[in-house]
Amino acid sequence: MPATPAWPPKSAPRLFVDSPIALDLPVHVEGNKAHYLGKVMRVAPGDAVILCDDTTGEWAAEVVEAGKRHVTLAPRELLREREPVPDFWLCPALLKKDRFDLVLEKATELGVARIVPVVTRRCVADKLNAERARAVTTEAAEQCARTALPELGEPVKLDTLLRDWPQDRHLFFADENGGEPAADAFCYAEGPAALLVGPEGGFDEAERAAIRAHPASVAISLGPRILRGETAAIAGVAVWMAEAGDWIDEE
Ligand code: SAM
């Protein structure tokens, strides 16, 4: 007797949708997402699609209708509630577009709760295309089977970030000029935290002094070599997740 194939199959495409999902409430997908399902994944009526809405969680949905520009799905089963993510922010200085896309993608995969782009004096860019950035983080969340999208803040000037910094949140400052070894600093710090990382040209002396003078800031080192901004951001987040995030078994 051949085994009944699992439903939904592991290979089912994943998609975030904008409106809250409910059992059997039809979900209408159009535009790029419909093209992805219809043309790229070639879904047909009866096929399964995994849907997430960044609110209720992850659903197994059945394709009811599949056209070139429009796909209708019926949510059949809630598979997982929206996952809790560690209360950790990444505050990366804006970098050149492709490098910043990498930071957005990897920060999403690694489990960051909020990304706050920072504008500093040596930044080569001072604007961020929010729609494009949201598309990058959404695609990364779909790829890594995350059910909660990271919050994406508006780019903020460094002095504004420091002025409005929440009192209860640790501000770890990645400083290539030296600081506490990252793993040590992270594993002893309880509660909400964030990592601030500089641009290609680094922070200037006045900015460094202002950050170091901030009551919530702790300078951390990511080793003896001068890392690119995107490498420092990705490495710093990974160390935090391993030391204080959700890579640790909660016993
Ligand atoms: N200012 C440097 C320069 O001389 O060109 C380079 C800045 S580095 C490319 C970009 C950012 O990555 C720095 O501002 C810092 O936040 C972080 N970073 C790089 N290497 C680091 C290290 N070894 N430890 C801590 N942070 C580091």
Molecular structure report:
This protein has 251 residues and is α/β, with parallel strands linked by helices. The protein is 30% helix and 25% strand. It has seven helices and 14 strands. The strands form three sheets. A seven-stranded parallel sheet has the order 9-7-6-13-11-14-12, sandwiched between helices. A five-stranded mixed sheet has the order 1-3-4-5-2. Strand 4 (57-66) and strand 5 (70-81) form a beta hairpin. Helix 2 crosses helix 3 and helix 5 crosses helix 7 (229-244). The mean pLDDT is 95. The structure holds S-adenosylmethionine.
Attribute tags:
alpha/beta, five-stranded mixed β-sheet, seven-stranded parallel β-sheet, 14 strands
List the helices and strands and how they pair.
Layout: E1 14-16, E2 27-30, H1 31-40, E3 48-52, E4 57-66, E5 70-81, E6 88-92, H2 97-110, E7 114-115, E8 118-119, H3 130-143, E9 151-152, E10 156-157, H4 158-163, E11 170-174, E12 180-181, H5 182-188, E13 193-197, H6 205-213, E14 217-221, H7 229-244
Parallel strand pairs: 1-3, 6-7, 6-13, 7-9, 8-10, 11-13, 11-14, 12-14
Antiparallel strand pairs: 2-5, 3-4, 4-5
Bound molecules: S-adenosylmethionine.
Contiguous helical run count = 7
Approximate helicity band: 25-40%
The secondary-structure element order is: EEHEEEEHEEHEEHEEHEHEH
Largest sheet: 7 strands, parallel
